[in-house]
Amino acid sequence: MLREWLDEGKLDAAIVTRSPNSEEGYWLYSDQGVWIAAENFDLSVDVLPLVLFQADCKYHAAAIDSLTKQGRRHQLLACCDTASAQRGLVKSGSGVGVMGRVSIGRDVHELEGMPPLPSVDIALLTGGKSHPMMTASLVDRIQASVGKLSSQL
User: LysR substrate-binding domain location, by residue (predicted)?
Assistant: First the structure.
């Protein structure tokens, strides 16, 4: 959706995920996908309820694919538009989710023993019509700030 809005001129810039071998946009950070759940979530359920981000998210397809390959029964309970909505549903115990490690926050925890998830790059994309404030200097400052934050994780 963000890429569409950039193309349509509705956004000047967006921070998105991309495949590690892509050169789309300005690279900011590489992030590892992790499984998340509420502290007391029972993983022994027969059908694992999933709370995932939008279908175009790299982790969405990877989660479903890895569970299918394992033969683990699952059901997509919710497909969220925001990370905060996803974390909220996961925190409430509605299901398990997947997201980048940098995004999990303190209100949910990372699950051990789940199928591996890919790494993705986080990139800054700019629209076709450049905003006057989106200068090379600003992009450099954003990249430097994210680099400092990621080194603290």
Answer: 2-110
